[in-house]
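Handout, section B. The chain below has 298 residues.
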Amino acid sequence: MKTFIMAMTVMVLILTAFSQINAQDEPTWKKSLDFNLAVTQNAYSDSWAGGEAGNASWVSNLNALFEGPLSPRIKSKSTFKLSFGQTHVQDQETKKWKKPAKSTDLIDLESITSYSSGWPINPYFGLRFESQFLDASIDSVKRYINPITMTESTGFTRRFYEKDKDFVDSRFGFALKENFNRVVFYDTTITTDTAIAARTETETTTDGGLESVSDISLQLHKNIHWTSKLSLYKAITVSDKSTDHWSSTDVNWENILAASVTKYITVNLYVQWLYDKQINTRGRFKETLALGFTYKLL
């Protein structure tokens, strides 16, 4: 419940901030913001026979884009992606509800500032914050907003296509990544069977390398919108070279397909493919399909 309240609070704060920005009604700024919430549920009484188990799941997503000129030659683009969801499962025998498990969790905030040089490519500077609302890797220890990855990047960017709110652009440059992880240490003096977490300490690693990011936002149909981000990163130097595959190229490909059924009902398909040999030598795949309430503020 605490995690749900925190996730909803962050999303409401961003909704409020964007509504105030929208009130300014700046015609030169492109603004889009949508929030969706999907819920599914079924349950069985303790007298039900057949071995079925009830479940309830919910997922919320907030996606935003805010882009426009800060001056005649300086342009800013900020994107927000927030997601959180949980699944509740009923015990097959007792029909009692188990503790909810996290199904999706994402915080991804990015801001890019570019300078219009008059050439096909323009220099840029970027900041990106990546984390999650709740680190559930250790069930007995609640670590909120952990781990954290901060990325500072600079290089050159180019917009290949632009029409209304649709665009296709790509950038290439050097990136510096700082990773912060609050590691749990246990009290080794306790001899009971139950391990007790004594403290947490923040471990920091830094690496630098080459980064390529391509963004696509297209209205495929009047009721269908597609956004995609392909990120490639190759580390050149790292603070800890003891880990294997640190110099291998990392790939992160995210896709969101949103189809409007009615004004307030939307089907959202989120697909992500990750490849990071430091975590797993195989690619990782994630898919989330949700039908639920959607509110477009901008």
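Note. The mean pLDDT is 84. Compare this with the example in section A.
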